[in-house]
Amino acid sequence: MTMSHSEPRATVSDWLCVLRLEQYSEAFRTAGLATFRQCRNLTPDQLERMGITLPGHRRRILASLTKTNGNGNTESDTYCHSAESERDQRLEETGHDMALQRERPVALYYQRRWVKLDVDYLRYFDNEKEVYSKGIISTAFVTHVTSVGELKFEVVTNNRTFIFRAESEVERNDWVTVLQDCTRGRHHRSTMNPGSPLSPEFQGYLELRGLRSKLYTVVASEKVFLYKNIEDYRLGVGITSIDMNVGNVKDTDRRGFDLTTPYRIFSFIAESEQLREQWVEAMRNAIGEALSNSEVAERIWAEPSNSLCADCEAPQPEWAAINLCVVVCKRCAGEHRGLGPSISKVRSLKMDRKIWTEELIQVFLLLGNERVNSFWAANVPPSEALSPTSCSEERRRFITNKYRQGKYRKYHPLYGNQRELNNALCINVQCSDVLETLSLIFCGADVNCSTDMASWPSVLSLASAHSQPLQAELISHNLNTELPRSEVNEGMAAIHYSTPPCVSHNGFLYKTASMARPITERKSKDEFSRRWCTVNDGTFSYYESDKNSNPNGALKASDIVCLAVDVYDNTFELYSESERLYLFGTDDPDSHKEWVKSIAKTFIPAGVEPLLKLPFDRIGRLKCKDGLNLQTSKVGWFALVGSTLHAYLEDNKGEEIHLRKLNELSIQQDNEVLVLVERGRTLYIEGERKLDFSGWCAAIQAAAGSGGDTLSQQQLTETDIPVIVHSCIGYITQCGLTSEGIYRKSGVNSRVAQLLERFRCDARSVRLREGEHQVDDVSNALKRFFRELGEGLFTSKDASSWLSAAGKIPKTAFVPRSCVTLPCVNKATLQALINHLYCVQRFSELNQMNVHNLAIVFGPTLFQCDGKDFTAGCAIEDLVQHYTFIFEVRLTIPGSMTAAELACEVLDRRKIRVKDKDYWNCWEVSDKEEMERPLHYQERVLPILHSFGTDSHLLIKKHLAMEAMMVKVDPSKHGMMKFREERSILGLGNFHDRYFILNSNSLRMYKEVRVRLTDLLCGRKKIKFSCPITLQYFFVSLRVTVQNVTGK
């Protein structure tokens, strides 16, 4: 069968929707192309000048035009559903599985169906008694209806053709006439939202019990529509619709719920429990919509400005803030509720019928959104205005600024003068100017003020006495309203809000084609095109030249999520919400700076403007989580400046994150989360968009690494000591204090170089372990690090002063002053190193490294000199000998001092008498991990002290549990426990099941048990164990290494 196809009389917007190129609608409209017919002669050059630069998009448009301009016969298939009028009759319809071909005739089979036509849909059923259809066709998608052959007629949409056969010629002609009348003069649609003239409330796939496949389900207004898939939804071809005025929704199980009607029960299964809750809520809202009364809404919409949302201009708003006198859409109403009833009293136009008195309706008709916004929105900057498509974060920010802060309101001339405001309110409520009363109330007039009239003591009674019911209605709804939070002192001059100056900038920039991937290599000059660019009214636009009036493309401020500066010389990157990257360049640094400043001002909100004053490398918004609430993400604004990340989180002041001082920095690849761990806090930055998130990750990781040869450019601890210095000192303190010739003996050169390279790449990830690393390798890596520093530990400016003072008396006057002149990081590093050398020389009897020997080694190393004389060594020797004076050490702890000796020393100094059964212990306390452990009485204190960070300390206190611990332990204590030997900074890692036996002398751990338990306990079998732990260390080991205990 040969099918004829008429050209659709569609608009350009509908045509582009079919091609999925809606983003070019504005370009066609600007070029004066409104209908499909006007576009038939377009050429590739014309499309490129209109801003359609992608070759694939141009080819798609030209192919569509070529196909339409060809012969009138086109292919179509039989999958489709269509329109409505007021007619129903039994017809025969072609089967869904038979395709109609253009060239070769194909036999068709027909199925007998009961067909109904109303205003919006053509529906067909198995029989006239069925309530729910087998298929529906939206009349908005029907392009034409024609008679074809004997008793048959076609219903044609943009993508499908349906053939029906009537039982007589008269019936066929009647159907054709009615369908043509139904679709004549209507705006034909190509895609999207066939279910309702309103936007869908919720949509997605649901599994219907009894079917093998999922159905695409749409909740729109007071109906639920079922489609085979999302493609059918976009084409207006459905299965059935369910009227929710007879529906009821009930949960059935974790993911399931039932939609019950008098005619059928629809049992749905959602993809998750969370989605089930969202579906149930959407369907219950649809039931409420179906049962609501539209009388009040229709009356209030009679005022034209009330038919658009007062905040975002969405059509047909069904909610109102009755005390603020604004009509708002559902999405904005949700944000109004978030303000609380003390600020915004939100009511439905359709469901809260009792609240809508005749007086309140008249107030809304008298004022209207347009007049009310002349007060509430008098000073809204274009860059902050909402649109119907604005996201929830933007709505929340705008509505908070508008009503809670009163940021955009028109200030009354009496603003700030409380007495005059109250007096003006008392006068005004006696007349009919309701808008003036609204202005007075929300600029600070007290609705509960005294009128100084005995007969009418309140403002409300005064309005009623003067026959002003609308004034009384407005006042009654604002008796307890919380006014906008702008504070003005008594008698202060009126302060008027002025609109921030609109950012405007223009000039030539060099631009490459937009990309969907990060830039991995430098672009050549040939890849850039010179374009005229402008920033105006919150939009960044680029043109072919300064003589063109139609832009090739544009980015709204709300679409820009990130700005990266100096990718290479005088360039910057813009990242968009739609996952596109735009690279621009300038001729000189001055113009580059101006462009970056202007573009940043367009999309950075007012609350985070301090970020604009920073010399940032990257700035933009990201979603993140921190603190105790890790369930809900919040929007944060971030600026990367060198190695510091500046952040403004929601409801929070600006803060700084020093990336080189992080305890840990990692990326969770599965969840696309960047984890920043600092002292007492973990920040999770989420990858909402892959493109800009990958850029942020790379930039933050680079900034957090070692960035140069100076100490300040290294990864640092919380005490400003380079991590490499802290790690090497800690390892040598633990494992090498008694090593003979420490720092004098050479390590293996290859291993030293490899270790130093690992530290320079990422010192934070290097873990020095006994047995895995040699003491001499670590000591030589530390020396080589200091020798190869760019400026040395003693800066080039201060080194001569240190050397000139070496060996001279008195040193106590010079050295502290010289320490003050050192940079912060150098001073902290010097103190840590001299502290360490002081400890090393205390063990000189064992390691043979006294002060003089250490000075010989470290003098030339730290001062980076040839060491031909001993001047540098003298300086180091002076520092080590006078260590306790220079760094104000109050209690000298010898290397051999044990925990018991330290406890006794402190108790003696404090003159505390020890009583019977008083068990005093030395405790290690970690504030960061909120834990403590008692040191073994023979444990040496000095190595513990040197392993501390700033969040740990020693504490001498009584051990209250010692009495109980001295009771004999039941030797039969045994069972499985989770065990881990080491722990990362995040506390992550794998626990393993191990078998433990505790007796009066030891705690024994076994990897596995292969004998009977009775034999093991009675000693009949010998078994190799993994690790015995003496009972004296039991409490320490249990606190530190054993978690999630299972068994006995």
UniProtKB/TrEMBL annotation:
One BP annotation, GO: regulation of cell shape
SMART domains: ArfGap, PH, RhoGAP, SAM
Domain Rho-GAP, residue spans: 714-887
Signal peptide start-end: none
Residues of the SAM domain: 11-71
Domain of life per record: Eukaryota
Chain ranges of the Ras-associating domain: 891-961
A GO term from the CC aspect: cytoplasm
Keywords: GTPase activation, Metal-binding, Zinc, Zinc-finger
Domain PH: 90-184, 199-288, 502-604
Molecular-function GO terms, alphabetical: GTPase activator activity; phosphatidylinositol-3,4,5-trisphosphate binding; zinc ion binding
Record-annotated Arf-GAP domain positions: 294-419
The keyword Metal-binding appears for this protein: yes
PANTHER family reported in the protein's UniProt record: ARF-GAP WITH RHO-GAP DOMAIN, ANK REPEAT AND PH DOMAIN-CONTAINING PROTEIN 1, RHO GTPASE ACTIVATING PROTEIN AT 15B, ISOFORM C
Protein name: ArfGAP with RhoGAP domain, ankyrin repeat and PH domain 1
